[in-house]
Each structure stands twice: as C-alpha cells, then as structure tokens.
Amino acid sequence: MLNKRIVLGVTGGIAAYKSAELTRLLVKAGARVQVAMTHSATQFVAPLTFQALSGQPVIIEDADPAKGHGMAHIHLGRDCDMLLIAPATANFIARLAHGLADDVLSAACLARDCPLWLAPAMNRQMWHHPATQRNVLQIQQDGAWVIEPDSGAQACGEEGAGRMREPEAIVDGLRDFFSPKRLSGKRVLITAGPTLEKLDPVRAITNLSSGKMGYAVAQAAREAGALVTLISGPVCVPSPPGIIPIQVESAHDMLNAVKAHVAHADIFISVAAVADYRPAQSQTHKLKKSTQALSIDLVPNPDILEWVATREKPPFCVGFAAETDRLIEHGEAKRQRKHLPLLAVNHAMSALGSDDNELILLDDEGVHPLPKADKLTLARQLVAHLANLFNSKNGG
Ligand code: CTP
Partners of 299 in the beta sheet? Predict the structure, then answer.
C-alpha cells in the first residue's frame, strides 16, 4: 500500500462515518489518500474530518478555484492508483449504472483510467431490490469491483445484508489487490493449529497452538496470488479472508487430508503443531476415575511433513520448528533431517498463542532472522522469502 494513491469517494449514507476510520487505516498503511465527497455525504460527516485524517483538502466541487484547473473530475480518476467509493449508496450505484455524471464523483468514475472499487451500504430491502441488483450487475460488467456488503444490524433498526464492509476488511482487500503476485496461480497447501488426540469421547491430548501463525501464512500466500488449501486442527481464530479451512482433529485426520490434496500442491507449508504421540487406545466409553494412579500408553504419530518431503516428487516444503534453546542449531538439524529447502524456527515460549512472533529462516544459503513483528507481517516476509527461493528453483 506504500505510496499508493487512493481517491476515496464518500457518498451520502450513514456508513460515511466508517469512512473516516477507513481514511485513517489507509493513511496508516502508507497510502496517499485524496477524499472527494458528494454534497449529501457532507450532511453525515464534515469534510474537515476527512481533511484532518488525510492531510488533504476534500474535493466537493468540480470547479474548485483552490485547485486552479476547475476540472477535478478529470484529474481525480487519472492521477491515482484506485478510485474507491465507500460508502456507495443505492442512488450512486444507479447513477453509475446509467452513466450519469452530474457531480464530481460520478463524473470522475466515467473519466477515470484506474480501477474502480465500490463498497455498497444501504438498507437490506434496497440492496435486495431487483433494480439495485440489476445496477450492481451492470457496473460489474462495466468493469467496477463491488465489495459484497456484510449482513447484520443496520442503522435503520432492521437486520440483513447491506452494511458496508468494515474498514479493516476493505483495507485488507486493497492490500491484496496491490500486493505483488509472487505466487500467482501456484497451489499452496498449508497445515495449521494443534491436533487433538482423543483419550475417550470427552477427553483429549492437545497443545497450546492457537493457529494464528498458520492462518496468517495462509492469508499472506493468498495475497501473493496463490490458490490456498488450508487444513486446520481445532482453533478459535477467524478464517483468513476468502479461505474456508478444511477442519480436522487428529494427526491421522490431518495426514489423510494432506494425502488428499498434496498431489496438486506446488508448495507445502507445515505450520501445524502436530502431536508427536497419541494414546495407544482411544476408549469408546468415558474412562471412570478410581483411586489408582493411571498411566496411558502413547504411540508415535506419523510425521506429516516428513511424509510429504520424502515423496518421489515432493512439493517445495517449508517446515516450522518451535525450540526453547539453541534455536539455529536445533532448527538446522531438523531441516536436514526432514529434507527441507526452508525451515522457520521460533522460540516455543514466546510464539505460542501470542499475536507477535520472531522467526529465523534457515535455508541452503544460511540464516535469515526476521525481527519481532505481528504474525501477519512475519507471514508476509516468510512468503516473500519462500517465493523467491521457489521461483529461482523453478525458473520463475
Ligand atoms: N510435523 C508434522 N508431523 C508431525 C510432527 C511435526 O508434520 N507428526 C511438522 C510440523 O508441522 C513442523 C515440523 O514438522 O513443520 C516440526 O518438526 P518436529 O520435529 O516435530 O518439531 P518439534 O515438534 O519441535 O519436535 P521436537 O519436539 O522433537 O523438537
């Protein structure tokens, strides 16, 4: 997003208040934001709010003497990387569908030579009305991208589809759009989260992996243009945008899911904290307590990553290792043992469950530390690194 020039067009709906936050997030992400408003939008939020957040005077009139040229509608959609209308009202979408150009924003949409994105916001019945649906289809056919609205409680008191997407989700979409597509069309298989090994119908052995790192890696791979298949143990984190995880429980389930998808994978990233052992027997009835000590026999689980990496034609394999001491030494030994071109090692205690992490990447070239950052930032750096390795190996 750094230095991307975004024209944010605000039209007259109550969701305009969310566009103030959208402006802040875009600026925070490094974009240069020029806000333009319709007259009715100014009744919802004062232009000064957007001016303060974007650091730029807001454009409302086409012939703004302050701008000198008096043709804002031409310059708006030419000198930018994206024209984003958020919120886009039913009325604005209808005018766009008919090619009307009766204010600076609608005229800029016609005169533009950049991508046009719209984040609709309206009452649920207005959204579902055949006229609106017809207009949405029309503007999509004319080349606009429409960000599907959310469902939920609406400002009018009703419940349903038509809420403008949350600013964070819109920024994620834009980031995705602008990010270099280093893994365009590549199939990436990822495992994430813990596994859960049942002792009886209500008890299990598991670990403290949250799945956050694996889900962040899935999001970063998708942003890089990959077709992502995410196989996940039981976690409580939201699915990455546009990815529906395949849910599994035990290491055996995870291995079976990997076997079902690995043949098509170009890259396998094994982030899951797979349980190394499972109970030798899983009881079908609940174990009853007694006064005696209880010991449980454990048997080793299959090593999924090793199984993939030692296939006849393995995908490019990336492993993760959680260590408590001598990270590089133990990590490198693990990388060699599992035949991996790349392994990310982290400190077991600081990584588990936390939002931040610190990684050391180990490959044939040596050691590449990634300093402490949030997991999504690290995931993006890891994906960039693996994409370079993968592409140089495969002549990409
Ligand atoms: N892994 C796997 N299947 C297993 C165990 C681990 O696929 N049964 C993968 C993990 O997803 C991770 C890497 O192997 O990418 C971790 O290797 P491992 O040797 O299991 O690391 P630790 O669990 O840290 O091992 P140890 O406890 O021996 O240090």
Answer: 278
The per-residue pLDDT for range 319-362, each reduced to its tens digit, is 999 999 999 999 999 999 999 999 999 998 777 777 888 999 99
Catalytic residue among 80, 109, 156, 317: 156
Spacing of C-alpha 147 from chain mean position: 15
Check pocket membership of 305 for ligand 1, CB cut-off 6 A: yes
Query: Which CATH superfamily hosts domain 180-393?
Result: CoaB-like (3.40.50.10300)
Please give the pLDDT value at position 377.
87
pLDDT, tens digit, for every residue of 27-49? 999 999 999 999 999 999 999 99
Cα 276 to averaged position of ligand 1 atoms, centre (Å): 7
Superfamily of domain 5-177: Flavin prenyltransferase-like (3.40.50.1950)
User: Which residue's alpha carbon is nearest to atom 6 within ligand 1?
Assistant: 274
Burial class, 106, CB count within 10 angstroms (exposed 0-12 / middle 13-18 / buried 19+): buried
Is 156 one of the catalytic residues? yes
Tell which residue, 101, 38, 39, 48, has the closest CA to residue 74.
101
Looking at the chain, the domain(s) classified CATH 3.40.50.10300 span 180-393
User: In Å, how far are 4, 25, 370 from 28, measured between CA atoms?
Assistant: 12, 5, 22
Which structure tokens are listed for 106? 């609608």
Q: Is 58 in the pocket of ligand 1 (CB under 6 A)?
A: no
* Angstrom distance (rounded) from CA 313 to CA 319: 17
- 235 CA → ligand 1 middle, Å: 18
Residue of minimum CA distance from atom 3 in ligand 1: 303
- Every domain range in the chain assigned CATH 3.40.50.1950: 5-177
Please tell me the residue having the least CA distance from ligand 1 atom 19: 334
